[in-house]
Amino acid sequence: MRIDYKKYIDEIKEMVKTDQELRSAGNINWDKVTEIDRKHTFRMREIVDEIGFPTISKIGKQANADSWLLIQHSPDIGLMQEYLALMEKQNDDEYQKMHYAYLKDRILLYEKKPQIYGTQVVMDDKTNKFKLWDVENEAELNERRKKIGLEPIEEYLKNFE
Question: How far apart are CA 23 and CA 13, in angstroms?
């Protein structure tokens, strides 16, 4: 049986549209965001079960990126870990390397471990400003970031000032 990837592409696109509309609202309703994230998590788990890892060759670069975004916003660290493991089994051209970095770092943040690529920031309770979550081997951070196509950490952190 041939899989109709178009229906998955369209569904993923709609989920991301909802995700982004809720997160870009002026006064974000975090209860609604959490509810939608759970719903999307459930559906993304089903999609991965149905088609496997949503590679670029299956669903295209945009839908692959959209799939990653939905996983990145999932409240289910188990699903994130499963998705990361699936990424690690793919050829490098089947996903964007920076998505791997963001997901890897997000999981490490949730596990309260130092991140590798410096993609995760947290709110500093004392200053009420964003700060970089702990980083493993910070001296080599920009080198790791460059290898996966991310800007230097100094430029990235300007987005949070």
Answer: 15
Q: Read off the tokens for 149.
A: 């196509």
- Kindly state the tokens that stand for 35: 């509810």
CA distance 67 to 70: 5
How far is 94 from 64, CA to CA, in rounded Å?
8
Number of domains the chain contains? 2
Q: Is 54 exposed, middle or buried (0-12, 13-18, 19+ CB in 10 A)?
A: buried
What is the rounded distance in angstroms from the CA atom of residue 106 to the CA atom of residue 103? 5
**Is 127 found in the same domain as 85?**
no
Q: Are residue 5 and residue 81 in the same domain, yes or no?
A: yes
pLDDT tens for each residue of 42-76:
999 999 999 999 999 999 999 999 999 999 999 99
pTM of the model: 0.91
